[in-house]
Design a protein that fits this description.
Length: about 160
């Protein structure tokens, strides 16, 4: 019995030191990660000051969805993507209310006019029309985008998928 107590008495301080080391090492790593925040405005090229959503993609680009287009910021300059009714490879609508990067790294954007996937090779969008967008007299209202099992993406509209 004495031998068990003696072993516990020696292990407890060592375990305590290990826990303290882990906590302080974690804090040290957190300090080493230097985060920098900047204000971006219309003076910097933002299409509108009302930002509806923000996404940072795997490449580090910041995407800002506004009521007047989609903005990609690389840390130096802003690229604005807008809707053009004559260009089927543009955004379906200028009001961008949802942004999402799926497991494969594809970027999806929900607008009032439908869902769009960004093609980084061409800098264009692939549109996915909502059922409501095709129905005469009906306007799509709200889209949501969520993560599904690997390889599957689901876009949901308030009136159906």
């Amino acid at each position: 019995m004495k031998r068990v107590l003696s072993l516990r008495a020696r292990l407890l301080p060592a375990a305590g030191l290990a826990v303290l080391f882990a906590v302080f090492a974690n804090d040290a790593l957190a300090v080493a990660r230097n985060l920098r925040f900047e204000r971006v405005s219309i003076e910097d090229g933002l299409s509108q000051e009302s930002v509806m959503n923000i996404l940072q993609d795997r490449q580090g680009f910041m995407w800002f969805g506004t009521q007047a287009g989609l903005n990609r910021y690389d840390g130096y300059r802003m690229t604005v993507y807008r809707s053009d009714p004559r260009d089927p490879s543009s955004l379906p609508d200028g009001y961008v209310n949802a942004s999402f990067e799926d497991a494969e790294g594809r970027l999806w954007f929900g607008t009032k006019g439908g869902l769009a996937r960004f093609d980084p090779a061409s800098g264009k969008f692939v549109r996915y029309a909502l059922r409501d967008a095709r129905a005469p007299g009906r306007q799509p209202q709200r889209q949501r985008h969520c993560r599904r099992p690997p390889g599957r993406t689901l876009a949901r509209h308030q009136r159906g998928a």
